[in-house]
Amino acid sequence: MRDTVRPASLKEKPLIKNLLQPYLHELSEYGNIKPNRLGEYEYRYLDCYWKEKGRYPYLIFHGRKVAGFVLVRKAGDCYHMAEFFILRPYRRSGLGRWAASQVSRKHKGKWRIEFFNANIPAEKFWKIVASDNADDEVKQRKSGKTRIYLEFWTKDAG
Questions:
Q1: For residues 55 and 75, what is the distance between their CA atoms, to the nearest angstrom?
Q2: Sign of the CA dihedral 36, 39, 84, 55?
């Protein structure tokens, strides 16, 4: 089966909205993320990915089946891996690592990847992805009391 990462069209926004539910549910274990009174998790920036410059929505596929999504945004001179999610059946297969690398290669330059410091699986995953794609060193810093971020330049980016 062929894995692909491609930009998500406006017609596919409902698909990403659906995928945000299990993603945000998982993140609620680490941060102050709560569902609304209808039991749904809200993501207020979703529409921005089809309206604002510097925002890039992607879908990840394993064959013809959706396997996850990526939301990238550019702020100043830096790309941010705003949201990244792989559905459970496709985890630990290498798909996530491959997809994250594909996206970082599409946007060469400075990257910042932030995650909750209590999310040990995310920390391990992102350290591997950053070292795979970094031109030089990967810098790790704290962001407030609950978050960590990694900064690096992609290979051949300057």
A1: 9
A2: negative
Nearest to 57 by CA among 77, 82, 33: 82
Contact 103, 111 (CB under 8 A): no
**HSE toward the beta carbon, residue 8, CA cutoff 13 A:** 29
Count of CB atoms situated within 10 Å of the CB of 118: 13
Q: What is the set of domains in the chain, with CATH numbers?
A: 3-153 (3.40.630.30)
Give me 87's structure tokens: 């559905």
Instruction: Encode pLDDT of 64-106 as tens digits.
Output: 999 999 999 999 999 999 999 999 999 999 999 999 999 999 9
Q: Is the pTM of this model over 0.90?
A: yes
- pLDDT digit string, tens, across residues 15-65: 999 999 999 999 999 988 999 999 999 999 999 999 999 999 999 999 999
Q: How far apart are CA 5 and CA 68, in angstroms?
A: 9
SS3 30: coil
Helix (H), strand (E) at residue 99: helix 95-106
CA–CA dist 61, 58 (Å, integer): 10
Residue at token pair 């630990």:
92
